[in-house]
């Protein structure tokens, strides 16, 4: 197949051909073909792994300590790699999936008026001392000192930082409110026992949103809007979730809900009423409570993993930092706040945990790292002549379906059997979606030889 293609070698390193400019595909990783197409070749990108369970355990420095399914699968196929206890390298397929997840989150947050910010991870101790959380957070807060002896923590959450920021906006008017400010950044928590891979680690990505409203009523409305956006997100991802009432914990405030994905390895116990809409984290209930407080029917218990958390904060933080706005009467008034978290890396791992089989990764289709993969015949096989057709099919697909731009791989590792490459394809797509391509009547002979996978 290579003979047919002209590699873009004619151009100096920093120059780009028109295909590169239009698609931002790095020079080294693509071939230009006479028709002007572009092919993403698997042999030139990160290779999937096929590690055995014992290899995974030794990577993690564990002996016989059972890891959960998502952690094992993600390590086995090369989606993550351990860096230190509770810290992982996110490898290219995972980053693609995460970027897709962040895009879906951005859409949901922006529909309700969210504006994106980006705050430093390094958070000065004074901010946390002002709310007393420097002491309250205890050992979970990852603390450090700079060369001048000034104390910081690596932020696990940013209520202090954002409230101080809003307090610095001296001319804030009620007309500008509500403010819905959010970011997707790395967060840190000094977990005593990091485990379950990306489900409970020390460094992770979170989407955290902070809202500022001019009245408690408006803040309640914002609270419902954000909860609805979270429901919409999990529905779009095809993940079964429950929204339960929750404790406010160290964040504080007066009302809180968790978004939980029911699963056996979950660390929270949830009580759900099958007869009405009541559901709660068990820690909010009396130990002896067996019946639904709303309809008195019996409650069912299930385990879940928390993937989202919402808090109505009132003026708990705005009163400390004096985050004010000018109200409709021209007088200063404290902002009513809410804060809302989504565990971004946790959602990825939790989705794999609930959707995958024991030996095959399954992604939510919106997040699969690639949407399609073409697998040409093995080199030296009697179908080899059809390789050219596979390339053409690739070009047709990417040209005819603009949404597939950058989403289709050509698995040109033709020294491997189709079966082995199909097995690898589980790393970046949902194997349930295998479609053997239907070719024309004349190509019927070759019908079996293309494996087009995709949704
Ligand atoms: Zn009930």
UniProtKB/TrEMBL annotation:
The keyword Transcription regulation does not apply. The keyword Translocase does not apply. GO terms for cellular component: mitochondrion. It catalyses: tRNA(Pro) + L-proline + ATP = L-prolyl-tRNA(Pro) + AMP + diphosphate. GO terms for biological process: prolyl-tRNA aminoacylation. It comes from the Eukaryota. It is an enzyme of class 6 (ligase). Its EC number is 6.1.1.15. This is Probable proline--tRNA ligase, mitochondrial. It comes from Callithrix jacchus (White-tufted-ear marmoset).
């Amino acid at each position: 197949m290579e003979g047919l293609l002209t590699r873009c070698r004619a151009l100096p390193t920093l120059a780009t051909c028109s295909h590169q400019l239009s698609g931002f595909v790095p020079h080294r990783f693509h071939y230009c073909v006479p028709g002007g197409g572009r092919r993403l070749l698997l042999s030139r990108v990160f290779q999937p792994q096929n590690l055995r369970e014992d290899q995974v355990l030794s990577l993690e420095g564990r002996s016989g300590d059972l890891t959960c399914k998502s952690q094992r699968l993600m390590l086995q196929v090369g989606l993550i790699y351990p860096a230190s206890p509770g810290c992982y390298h996110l490898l290219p397929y995972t980053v693609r999936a995460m970027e897709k997840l962040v895009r879906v989150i951005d859409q949901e947050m922006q529909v309700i008026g969210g504006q994106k910010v980006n705050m430093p991870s390094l958070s000065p101790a004074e901010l946390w001392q002002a709310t007393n959380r420097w002491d309250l957070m205890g050992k979970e807060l990852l603390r450090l000192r700079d060369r001048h002896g000034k104390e910081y923590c690596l932020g696990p959450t940013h209520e202090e930082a954002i409230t101080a920021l809003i307090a610095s906006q001296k001319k804030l008017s009620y007309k500008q409110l509500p403010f819905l400010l959010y970011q997707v950044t790395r967060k840190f928590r000094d977990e005593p026992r990091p485990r379950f891979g990306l489900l409970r680690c020390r460094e992770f990505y979170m989407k955290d949103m902070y809202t500022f409203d001019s009245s408690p009523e408006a803040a309640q409305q914002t609270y419902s809007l954000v909860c609805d956006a979270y429901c919409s997100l999990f529905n779009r991802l095809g993940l079964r979730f429950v929204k339960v009432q929750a404790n406010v914990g160290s964040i504080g405030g007066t009302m809180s809900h968790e978004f939980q994905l029911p699963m056996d390895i979950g660390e929270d116990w949830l009580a759900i009423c099958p007869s009405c809409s009541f559901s709660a984290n068990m820690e909010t209930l009396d130990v002896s409570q067996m019946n639904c407080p709303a309809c008195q029917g019996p409650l069912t218990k299930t385990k879940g993993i928390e993937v989202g958390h919402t808090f109505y904060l009132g003026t708990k933080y705005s009163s400390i930092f004096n985050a004010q706005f000018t109200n409709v009467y021209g007088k200063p008034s404290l902002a009513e706040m809410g804060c809302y978290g989504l565990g971004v890396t946790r959602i990825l791992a939790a989705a794999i945990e609930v959707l995958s089989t024991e030996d095959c990764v399954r992604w939510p289709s919106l997040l699969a790292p690639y949407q399609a993969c073409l697998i040409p015949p093995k080199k030296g096989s009697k179908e080899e002549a059809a390789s050219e057709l596979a390339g053409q099919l690739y070009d047709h697909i990417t040209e005819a379906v603009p949404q597939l731009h950058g989403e289709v791989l050509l698995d040109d590792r033709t020294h491997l059997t189709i079966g082995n490459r199909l097995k690898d394809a589980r790393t970046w797509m949902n194997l349930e979606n295998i479609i053997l391509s239907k070719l024309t009547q004349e190509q019927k002979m070759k019908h079996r030889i293309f494996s087009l996978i995709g949704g």
